[in-house]
Amino acid sequence: MKNKFHPLLCCNYTAACVRFCLLLLCLWPVLRLHAQERTVTGQVQDMAGRSLPGVTVSLKGTSKGAVTDAAGRFTLAVDQSPATLVFSFMGYETKEVPLEGNASVTVKLQEDVKKLGELVVVGYGTIKRSDLTGAVASVKAEDLTTAGSSTVQRALQGKVAGVQIESAGGNPGAGARVMIRGVGTLNNNTPLYIVDGVQVTGIDNLAPNDIASIEVLKDASAAAIYGSRAANGVVLVTTKSGTPGRTTIRLNAYYGVQQLAKKLDVLNAAEWARVSNAAHDAAGQARLQIARNPDSLGAGTDWQDEIYRTAPIQSYELSIGGGREGSVYSVSGGYFNQDGIVQVTGYNRVNLRVKSETTKGRFTFGETAILTRERWTDMPGGWGGQGGNPVGSAAKMIPVFDVYDPTAIGGFAGAYGPVVNVANPMAQLHLESIKRDSNKVITNVYAQAELIKGLTYKINLGYTYNGGYGYDYQRRYQVGTLFTQKTNNLTETRNEAHFLMLENTLNYSNAFGKHSIQALAGYAWQQNRYKYTYASAQDLPDGIDQMDAAAGTRNSGGNMTESRLISLLGRVVYSYDNRYLLTASFRRDGSSRFAPANRFGNFPSIALGWNIANEAFFAPLASTINQLKLRASYGVLGNQEIGDYRYQQSIATGLSYVTGIDQHKWFGAIQQSFVDPNIKWENTSTFNIGTDLGLWQSKLTLSADYYRKRTTDILLEVPIPGSAGAIGNPVVNAGIIRNSGFEAGLSYNGQGNNFTWQATATIATASNKVEQLGTGGQIITGGQPSHHGSATTTTKVGGEVGAFYLVKTDGIFNSAEEVQAHVDKDGNLIQPNAQPGDIRFVDANGDGQISDADKVYCGSPFPDFTYGLGLNGQWKNLDFTIFFQGTYGNKIYNGLRMDLDGMNLEFNYSKATLNAWTPENHTDFPRAVINDPNYNTRVSDRFLENGSYLRLRSLQVGYTIPGAVMQKLSLSSFRAYVSFDNLFTITGYKGYNPDLGRTGNILDRGVDYGHVGYPLARTATVGIQLGF
Questions:
Q1: What is the pLDDT of residues 157-168, one digit of tens each?
Q2: Rounded distance, CA 400 to CA 291, Å?
Q3: Which among 104, 124, 126, 426 is most buried, taking Cβ atoms within 10 Å?
Q4: What number of CA atoms fall less than 13 Å from residue 700's CA on the CB side?
């Protein structure tokens, strides 16, 4: 692969290093300690021996303090004797330890049952962990920052049972698509995201180091408080807050490189010419002029080497936090830059976050503000050719052709002659510039007052803004004889999304005798506004990208939408003697997206829990089983993410028709579709049973759940005759999908001499079944894998969503006798165009011919189970983290191989074609014949592959500088590490990446188009984490 030096890259890297060094030099004199002090070092652990990062260590009677690092270690200067250290951490009992002359201490903190609930964030507040009855998964900050991921959701992949996180594209800055507990609708399956109490559209713009914890609400007991927005689950994100005491400064920085993780095996120029000649000879056609002398061609152009590169990735984050009793603050800022492994592409992000909270008597005030600036340089989507985007074109472009042609308009060579229109991928990348900018703001302010003992009123005002700008400039070009654009064209877009919310809640908490109760009541109001505009212009002068300079056609347009939601909500959490638990919640939502008759929906839930380990009869087992809880819940959730104005009639203008004797053309408008004015919510009823188990003081923990979901009133387009006079089909509530599954998370903590470790495992299953669809006989198809061929997926009653229905193959005809023997019941040839070497297809419906009517069920795009396996540990100052993630049992339709292995078009081909069937060499690969008269490349199980995989998702090794050295450097912590992402993948899939995810359409899941994706990168980074 060619790696070309670029002076701009060197300048950027040098500038980043200079900024980093200047920052350290500026901070150094401020943070030096001048007093003569002795140094005390130590480590803080929980009772199971797990390291506790973030513990506040203070010198009693003074303002001096420190915070433990990721390994639970701390260093503190002590200038008094005798001295006592105070260790405090949320969820644990505060502990005082006299030093008694010790220079090093190891401290273990006991979980505080009274404070334990502070660690579990749920909707509109927190619940004691012991009182939790819902299916809630928590991810700690250290699990997010050690994965080396550029986005938060990718760092979550495989760490939460029941949460499927898939690639939304490997391009720089691409996020992930998240699906909680399988598919529940044919519409939007995206969960609801809440950041510090504010609803957002996604969390990939957040810096991973800014996050304190993530809670995933999976069942109705946990999620029903969010009502109509919670059918797909809820992801709650809490960002980091300051802690009282000494001001802490953290600096995290890393720099790394990325490379293509896997290269496809395609033919070089000489090999392609030989295969092409054989294919034309078999078809009785003249050989292509460019292929007539294979030996003179050599290797030709390796188009994959041309477009892929080794690309840098870097991140710098600085945070400051602290405060005093009753007032805390946290401020952070960061810069992230990722060049893509595909030339030209890239992404950068600038983050700024401010968060504070102040308590004065009975009053508490706080705010959060998160500002993000993002910029993408995207890969062009294609010029209408058969290659698709540059990734697809690099695989399919014939290697005989050159990259550059100085005499051509634009300077790039291209294909010519009687070949398929696959574009020069380098020309695509450099002759079209696509950029996107995004400015995002997430902010909220709140005030809280304790009205009487136990009763608190809170008002929360939230606002988000997302302003986007798009730029697409196409230069004029002549690329070969197949791609011509005579003018420079420009398209610019702008969009703005405003979200405003106001919440008023009352919280009551009280404990009396063996009873404990928490109650919540509230009112919420939300408003969404979205505006989009675009403008385009043609025939701009060379080098000028301003609309007003265009000599050709100009166009503009736009749209605007608005919606509102009002809600009443309530929840009661009751515990008797910390043994018997009850949680009940209710939400009533009213949405402007529905007609007045169906505008309001009710979403209740109830859950019961039993802490068996707290029963008297369980006491003899307490030393072994310290936790055993049974949980059960049932509730109804909703989905209002159907788009705006779906119940209202729309009119299309600008249409014309011709009538009368003089055939006069008349312009007018037409009704676009019929609508159902009575459409209503999609409702999901959920049943969940689960257990939480802890053994040997929670050295071993297990959380397991079984669930069943049934979504009714799914919105579908029901076909109507064209004679009805509308362009589209009406949208009605006409679908039912059932979903069920099992999920479990396991953790074990061990320790030995100077060594502690933790092993984790998650596993989840999810299956779905369509119970109703449209009028009963409706079938929905999707997933057309290439520029040719039919749909690959079918959704119908009795089956699952987006299942693969394909024509089955039955080997290869090895003789003319076998072809003649493949007949129907009447003795007619089933494949009249077949010859020896062609594929034998199964006539499943027995009609004597091979067509789409012969498609049968061949597999599922959904895995039998997903899993994650993690191991982390530390030995003295060394630490490591290793994490595997994968799926099992899912299928992938390889649309790219459909083109590379096919002979119906003049592409480049895969190496497999070198082993094509011949009369002398009977193989399992069909004969080489151009134009494919037997249609060997039809949509069939030939291209359906096993999508299971096991991936080494991340590997990180770190070293924490000893306390004595840090003291001399005036640092509280100093850790250096190396990290590797996507080191290897074990899979039988032949494409770039089995974790190809899906498009926005659930029916396309598991279909690798090949011409629209972006390959996976393997990444290596080095980084430092400093504390002052």
A1: 778 888 888 776
A2: 8
A3: 426
A4: 5
